[in-house]
Amino acid sequence: MIFTPLDIETEGLNSPEHQVVSICLGDKVCAQDCKDVTEKTVLKVLTAWVHSRKPGTVIVTFNGGSFYNPGFDFPFLRTRYAINNLRWPFAGVKNVDIYPIIQKRFNTAVSIPPTLEEFTVDELKIMVTALTGNPAPKSLKAVIINGIKDNFGDDIISEYLTKFGTPKRKDINDLKGAHEILTGIPGDEKNGLWSVNAWLQYKETGNPMILDQIREYNKADCDKTLELFEIIRTMVSSRDIKPEVL
C-alpha cells in the first residue's frame, strides 16, 4: 500500500459558509489566489490528483475521516463539493485517520500551570505580596488580576504560576502537539487560526508572500501527518490502522 497524507486549510470551521483555501495531497499543494484560482478550481485540481493516484493508495489524515468520529477534512470537503456542484472524487478511496488512534492508544497528556483566573482570591493576594513585598489590598478578584497583569510581565507571571500553582492535566490532541510529543521535535506557534487570519490578510493585501506561507504551512501539516503515521503503525495492531472506505 502507498500512504499519502491529506490536509486542508479553510476560511473557518463551518463548511456551509467557509471555503477551502488550500489543499495538500502528498507533495502537491494547491491554493486559491483571489484572482484566477477559485475554490472550485482547487477542488477540481484535487479531483484530478485523486483520479491519478497509484493503485493501492491509502489517504492518511489527522482528524479527517468519519469511521471513528465525524472528523473534519472529509465532511468539510463533501459539503464544499456539493455546494460547488462537483462530483465527489473519493468514492471507494481508503483512508486512515490517525487522530482517534492516538486518542485510544497513546497517552499525550501533559501538565500545565493554572491561569490567573483559576487562582482563588486568597492565592492571588499571596501572589501580590510575594511579587511586591507589600500586603495585597482588599479588592475584587478581577481587579486583583488586572493589577497583576498591569504591573508584571508575562514571564514573571508565568514563572510564578508554574512554581506555585497546582498543575492541570491536559490532553494534547492537535496535530502539532501530538507530533511534538511523539517525535520530540519542537513545533512552532502557528495553528489553524493562523491560517485563517493569514488568508484574510492575503485577501486584503494581495501579498503573494502570505499565500506562499499558507502553502508552506499546509505542506508542513501534511508532512507531520505522515511522520506521525509512520510512528504509529509500528506500535499498534493492524486492526487499529484498518482503513475505512470513503
Detailed description of the structure:
- The protein has a six-stranded mixed beta sheet, sandwiched between helices. A two-stranded antiparallel ribbon has the order 6-7.
- The chain has two domains: 2-108 and 172-245, 2-Layer Sandwich (Nucleotidyltransferase, domain 5), CATH 3.30.420; 109-169.
- It has 246 residues and is α/β, with parallel strands linked by helices.
- The longest helix has 25 residues, at 208-232.
- The protein has nine helices and eight strands.
- Strand 2 (20-25) and strand 3 (28-31) form a beta hairpin.
- Helix 4 runs parallel beside helix 5 (141-151) and helix 8 (192-205) packs antiparallel against helix 9 (208-232).
- The chain has helices at 39-51, 73-83, 98-105, 121-132, 141-151, 154-164, 175-183, 192-205, 208-232; strands at residues 2-10, 20-25, 28-31, 57-61, 94-97, 109-112, 168-171, 244-245.
- It is globular and about 70 Å long.
CATH architecture of the largest domain: 2-Layer Sandwich
Supply the CATH superfamily name of the largest domain. Answer: Ribonuclease H-like superfamily/Ribonuclease H
What gross morphology would you assign?
A: globular
**Strand arrangement across the biggest beta sheet:** 3-2-1-4-5-8
Our count of domains comes out at 2
CATH class of the largest domain: Alpha Beta
Largest sheet, in brief, is: 6 strands, mixed
Total strands: the figure is 8
Task: List unreliable stretches of 5+ residues.
Answer: none
Overall pLDDT score: 92
CATH topology of the largest domain: Nucleotidyltransferase, domain 5
Classification by helices and strands: alpha/beta
Number of helices: 9
User: CA-to-CA gap between the ends?
Assistant: 16 Å
What percent of residues adopt helix (DSSP H or I)?
Answer: 40-55%
